[in-house]
């Protein structure tokens, strides 16, 4: 069984540019989560999809961030325009639908550097 | 609201000696608690989980943790450290709809 995959693994962009991160969850997992770790800080929740619907987007920092999950499969997280403080590692995780308390399986993360 | 506090940002142990990583939690209801590990340049891997069953939880690679409600603690232990245990460890509590609340992380260094 393939795990959670994320693309790209690294991205370096200039301030003001746009970047799109992609996450492919484990097949059959309805729950998809995005998290972020800014340098020196804790890993923070961004948002949660159940299938294609946003269940909770309380962690999204501002309207420069747009997440989508068309068809309830893979998800994208777009940052437009990127700012210096957006640099960090973006993690995606998925879990099965039945139990919210069950473990989430994480992808390797995308390291975003905004210069 | 849920939160976790990892009491040590860095822990250094000698190979073959015990490891103790301390975690205290706060939760407005019976929580699910996890320990995740991240090795350098790798993703987050689940070590073990507590979901209101046995209070002593055994995980992978010889790690275990004990849920103590009276102390609101969920400390992670391993009897004998191995060089491969060098990594960053996160204590995590679940919030609403499975949202994870992470501790700040504990960096473990293992010396020969």
For the terminal residues of chain B, how far apart are their CA atoms?
Answer: 41 Å
> Mind summarizing the main beta sheet of chain A?
7 strands, mixed
Number of helices of chain B: 0
Mean pLDDT of chain A: 92
Strand content of chain A: over 45%
Task: Give the proportion of residues in helices of chain B.
Answer: under 10%
Largest interface: A-B, 25 and 23 residues
Rounded to the nearest angstrom, the radius of gyration of chain A is 13 Å
Q: Roughly how many Å apart are the termini of chain A? A: 37 Å
Question: Care to give the gist of this entry?
Answer:
By secondary structure, chain A is mainly β.
State the main characteristics.
heterodimer, A: 115 residues, mainly beta, seven-stranded mixed beta sheet, four-stranded antiparallel beta sheet, 49% strand, globular, B: 112 residues, six-stranded mixed beta sheet
What this model shows, in words?
The complex is a heterodimer of chains A (115) and B (112). Chain A is 0% helix and 49% strand. Chain A has strands at 5-7, 10-13, 19-24, 31-37, 43-50, 53-56, 65-68, 75-79, 88-95, 105-106, 110-114. Chain B is mainly β. Helices cover 0% and strands 54% of the residues of chain B. In chain B, strands 2, 5, 6, 10, 11 and 12 form a 6-stranded mixed beta sheet that branches. In chain B, strands 3-9-8-7 form a 4-stranded antiparallel beta sheet, with no helix packed on it. A two-stranded antiparallel ribbon of chain B has the order 1-4. In chain B, a hairpin with a 5-residue loop joins strand 7 and strand 8 (64-68). The mean pLDDT of chain B is 92. At the A-B interface, strand 4, strand 5, strand 9 and strand 10 of A face strand 6 and strand 11 of B.
Helices and strands in order:
The complex is a heterodimer of chains A (115) and B (112).
Chain A: E1 5-7, E2 10-13, E3 19-24, E4 31-37, E5 43-50, E6 53-56, E7 65-68, E8 75-79, E9 88-95, E10 105-106, E11 110-114
Parallel strand pairs in A: 2-11
Antiparallel strand pairs in A: 1-3, 3-8, 4-5, 4-9, 5-6, 7-8, 9-10, 9-11
Chain B: E1 3-6, E2 10-14, E3 19-21, E4 23-26, E5 33-38, E6 44-50, E7 56-58, E8 64-68, E9 73-78, E10 87-94, E11 100-102, E12 106-111
